[in-house]
Design brief:
Strand order of the largest sheet of chain B: 2-3-4-5-1-8
Largest sheet of chain B: 6 strands, mixed
Helix content of chain A: 55-70%
Oligomer: heterodimer
Largest sheet of chain A: 2 strands, antiparallel
Structural class of chain B: alpha+beta
Strand content of chain A: under 5%
Order of helices and strands of chain B: EHHHEEEEEEHEE
Number of helices of chain A: 28
Mean pLDDT of chain B: 90
Number of helices of chain B: 4
Mean pLDDT of chain A: 77
Structural class of chain A: mainly alpha
Distance between the termini of chain B: 28 Å
């Protein structure tokens, strides 16, 4: 009379089914048998239809993060009508309402006559994710097909002129919108690599988004708005909820945009919460995405809560969750907030340098050891535009450091400081004002000319000091060389 | 498309290991059409997440941890079930059969029975009073 639903071993498949379908699942075997009865199969199909309609409307609405009121508004009906449509026991729909509902959800309604075999397959595949559908704007196929439409791309390019200006217009329009669901879709698509300027595909999406920020006086306000929207997206837990194919790349881009914005007060909290979630579920993020998260956590520090994490990276040369080594740890300390805004946390940096010297550099041959340590100190000075006073300060705070490292400090104190630009596009894009980075006339100029411009412009720069400004200038003009500056 | 069963489904059995759900379904008053509807609901239930089953009113809470599966047919079948009770994240257990007539569950004691049966399963840590769901044919 009865049969095990799980095993189905007691029942032989109807004659011929093995040759047609090979190894049948227990459910398939059972339904093939039961469907021999017309009443049974029609009743089962009717129930599937009701559940599929209600389940799809509910699953897609929740996928859009809409409540029933919002869907009702989009359809032009009432919340109770939507509630009825989402009830698996309701079947008095009319096609017109279903069409309107489908369009409101950014989908289409498909009505077709199907075989009973397809019903069995659809029941087996029933799940929330198989009920969900992307909207037109999020449809990966539409997006990828659009990207391959060469004539459109060329026309867009002609309209766009400079792709960076095109991106700036796109970002400005996006920031102006006061509709988060729509902004979320656009931002997510950008992070996935869709909807970016039609040329320059070699650029990563995060770089395009940072190029999209205006230069000049509007930049800080745009950065702030951008950071607020990024924070909102981060707190929607994309690391848990994003399911699309380019998930890891999109998360990586999201974190690197967060890093590039350098708007720590807004972004530090949401990024910390991402880190908390990664602690709970380390497998949620790939190595690439965690690499991006590390960069963002380094750049967006509102307080000293991560100091111990940076110290752990320096001491162990690695971290349990993030792909950070001792150099990442030192970077974290460089971005650690100091006692006043824009000031370095010299205590932490001195301790970091001391640990680098003791743990990692002491193993190297003497010459390499000294050069490496000197590089590290230079990086700190370049970062903060620190001069002799900062070297002396660091030296004073490093009294317990190995003797050889203190001698390296002493060698710095002579008035020559070497500035090396190791800043990348991120720094450039997040960096200085338009007038400060547009001194392209210094390309090919000698060190003296550069120093002259530097002295002239440095007082107007961001407060990080002349060497920071020089780093940006040199990146802007593509100069990766080393320049000596007399006087500092 | 990937087919995944999110939940395992169990039936309540009495002290003699008789499957009380199958016994209920064997009642002649339940038509073949209604059994098909019930079978589909159970097939869907173990594949849909719990939240979606609640949002779409496939399941409704009845009493304490007892839920009813709503099947609208010639007879309004309302089998009582619970999540778990051994592992609420991965199991449902059908506890008792019932029908709804005029907004009232029959038998009237079904809610209390279901709670008690759920307690029996928990008391035996799932080793007694339940078996894998058997589909009535």
């Amino acid at each position: 009379m009865s049969d095990s639903h799980e095993s189905g071993k007691d029942n032989d498949p109807p004659e011929g089914t093995a040759s047609l379908g090979g190894d049948l699942s227990p459910l398939k075997r059972k339904l093939v048998q039961d469907f021999q009865d017309r009443d049974y199969r029609e009743s089962y199909a009717e129930e599937f239809l009701k559940t599929n309609v209600a389940g799809q409307i509910a699953a897609i609405r929740e996928q859009r993060q809409w409540n029933q009121e919002r869907l009702a508004k989009e359809v032009g009906t009432t919340q109770s009508a939507v509630s009825r449509l989402e009830n698996v026991n309701y079947s008095a729909w009319n096609v017109k309402t279903l069409v309107k509902t489908a369009f409101a959800l950014g989908t289409r309604l498909k009505i077709s006559f199907e075989t009973f075999s397809s019903l069995i397959e659809e029941v087996e595949a029933l799940s929330r994710s198989n009920l969900q559908r992307p909207s037109f704007e999020e449809d990966a196929k539409i997006l990828s097909w659009s990207a391959t439409l060469a004539p459109t791309a060329i026309r867009k390019l002609e309209e766009a002129g400079d792709p960076r200006k095109w991106m700036q217009r796109a970002v400005a329009a996006w920031l102006e919108k006061n509709d988060w669901p729509e902004q979320r879709v656009t931002l997510t698509n950008w992070l996935r690599g869709y909807g970016l300027p039609p040329v320059g595909s070699e650029e990563e999406p995060y770089a395009w988004l940072l190029y999209g920020l205006p230069l000049g006086p509007d930049r800080p306000l745009s950065q702030q708005r951008f950071a607020t929207l990024l924070a909102r997206l981060l707190d929607e837990q994309p690391d848990c909820n994003w399911r699309f194919e380019e998930r890891e790349d999109a998360l990586y881009n999201l974190f690197l945009v967060s890093a590039g914005l350098e708007w720590s007060e807004t972004l530090a909290g949401p990024l910390d919460r991402v880190l908390d979630r990664v602690r709970d579920k380390p497998d949620n993020l790939s190595l690439k995405a965690r690499d991006g998260l590390l960069a963002a956590l380094i750049r967006a520090q509102a307080d000293t809560r991560h100091q111990s994490m940076w110290m752990e990276m320096i001491e162990k040369g690695k971290h349990g969750l993030l792909p950070g080594d001792e150099y990442a740890g030192l970077s974290g300390l460089k971005w650690l907030p100091g006692p006043r805004p824009g000031e370095p946390n010299l205590d932490a940096i001195a301790l970091g340098l001391k640990l680098m010297a003791e743990i990692h550099l002491a193993k190297l041959p003497e010459k390499a050891r000294d050069e490496e340590f000197r590089d590290l100190v230079e990086q700190v000075l370049t970062f903060y535009g620190g001069g002799r006073a900062m070297v002396e300060d660091l030296s004073r705070r490093s009294r317990s450091a190995p003797r050889w490292s203190r001698l390296v400090f002493d060698l710095f104190i002579p008035k020559i400081a070497v500035v090396e630009s190791k800043t990348g596009d991120l720094v450039r894009a997040a960096g200085e004002d338009d007038d400060q980075i547009s001194y392209t006339g210094i390309r090919g100029a000698g060190a003296e000319e550069l120093a002259r411009i530097l002295r002239k412009c440095a007082p107007k720069s961001s407060g990080r000091g002349p060497r920071w400004f020089l780093g940006s200038v040199m990146t802007a003009v593509g100069d990766r060389g080393t320049v000596s500056l007399a006087g500092g | 498309m990937i087919a995944i069963e999110l939940y395992s489904l169990y039936d309540y059995t009495d002290a003699k290991d008789d499957n009380l759900i199958v016994r209920w379904l064997a009642d002649d008053r339940i038509s073949r059409r209604d059994r098909a509807k019930l079978d589909f609901k159970l097939d869907a239930l173990i594949r849909m997440d719990f939240d979606l089953a609640i949002h779409t009113k496939m399941l409704a809470q009845v009493y304490k941890n007892v839920l009813k599966l709503k099947v609208h047919g010639e007879v309004q079948l309302r089998p009582m079930l619970c999540r778990g009770p051994i592992d609420v994240a991965t199991e449902y257990t059908l506890l008792a059969g019932a029908v709804e007539i005029g907004g009232r569950l029959k038998p009237e004691s079904v809610k209390e029975n279901a709670v008690a049966r759920c307690g029996h399963i928990v008391a035996h840590k799932g080793t007694k009073h339940r078996c894998k769901h058997e589909r009535f044919t």
